[in-house]
Amino acid sequence: MLVTLKEILAKAEAGNFAVGAFNSPTLESARAAIETAEELQVPIILSHAEVHFEVTPLEVMGPILVELAKNASVPVVVHLDHGSSLETVKKAIDTGFSSVMIDASHMSYEDNVNTVIEVVDYAHSHNVSVEAELGMITSSGIGGEETAGGEELTEGDAEDYYTDPEVAKDFVQRTRIDALAASFGTVHGIYIKEPQLDIKRLKLISENTKIPIVMHGGSGLSEEEYLAVINSGVRKINYYSYAAKAGANAIKEYIEQNKDLFYHDFAVIAKDAIKKDVKRAMEIFSNKGQYAKK
Ligand SMILES: [Zn+2]
């Protein structure tokens, strides 16, 4: 069933777990996430990032995601990831998305606040949830869903862009957003060096804002790191790069071992490999399966 981000994150808060947000630029990535969520009976978020519109346009992928969500046996949020403007947000909402992210984090603070307020007014009047970003989540430069304005930022700059817990309080009060994307050590894409998470900062952000925190760049972390951020207020974990890499690696192996190649076989192989990868993530985030706490 299609649900809003606000509804699902309230449940995550009450149960001290996190909901995985899986980028779905192709049918295989979307189906892999939905099928795994149904097998585990956990809620999920299907995200379509604006930078992935060139892979599959919003007009094509959007209705598919909404339909998959409506027919699912688990709660599913259909979410716009890193939307860059009110125009894109409106398009996503018209398509039936139940949640949007507006990323104005590259703007000045006041411009960020004003842009987010505009989006919140529109989205909330349509019963759609809003996530916004304060501070900037940088990129390792290898894969990942890129930010709307911070593509040029590299991992080396990361700390300069961490979210300020005091500013976060003001940001959330003024914008009335439903979830806050915070920067505290994760980066988009494949990790070149071990991530150093600033858990103390994360806890302060969570305490000051009293709303669910979103962790971007959330694939490629250890079980311990996931549990640490969940216990510190993270309720939505954006998970993509490592799942996409798992799909590609499986296809590469298949090509090396087989002669007669047909494209549809790649789709099946990729989906199966992505399922395996996201299963671990979903089990850890929701405290299920082999990762259930004893
Ligand atoms: Zn992101």
TrEMBL record:
<dbReference type="InterPro" id="IPR000771">
    <property type="entry name" value="FBA_II"/>
</dbReference>
<feature type="binding site">
    <location>
        <position position="216"/>
    </location>
    <ligand>
        <name>Zn(2+) 1</name>
    </ligand>
</feature>
<protein>
    <submittedName>
        <fullName>Class II fructose-bisphosphate aldolase</fullName>
    </submittedName>
</protein>
<feature type="active site" description="Proton donor">
    <location>
        <position position="81"/>
    </location>
</feature>
<feature type="binding site">
    <location>
        <position position="82"/>
    </location>
    <ligand>
        <name>Zn(2+) 1</name>
    </ligand>
</feature>
<dbReference type="GO" id="GO:0008270">
    <property type="term" value="F:zinc ion binding"/>
</dbReference>
<feature type="binding site">
    <location>
        <position position="133"/>
    </location>
    <ligand>
        <name>Zn(2+) 2</name>
    </ligand>
</feature>
<dbReference type="InterPro" id="IPR013785">
    <property type="entry name" value="Aldolase_TIM"/>
</dbReference>
<keyword id="KW-0479">Metal-binding</keyword>
<dbReference type="InterPro" id="IPR050246">
    <property type="entry name" value="Class_II_FBP_aldolase"/>
</dbReference>
<dbReference type="GO" id="GO:0016832">
    <property type="term" value="F:aldehyde-lyase activity"/>
</dbReference>
<dbReference type="Pfam" id="PF01116">
    <property type="entry name" value="F_bP_aldolase"/>
</dbReference>
<feature type="binding site">
    <location>
        <position position="188"/>
    </location>
    <ligand>
        <name>Zn(2+) 1</name>
    </ligand>
</feature>
<keyword id="KW-0862">Zinc</keyword>
<dbReference type="GO" id="GO:0005975">
    <property type="term" value="P:carbohydrate metabolic process"/>
</dbReference>
<feature type="binding site">
    <location>
        <position position="103"/>
    </location>
    <ligand>
        <name>Zn(2+) 2</name>
    </ligand>
</feature>
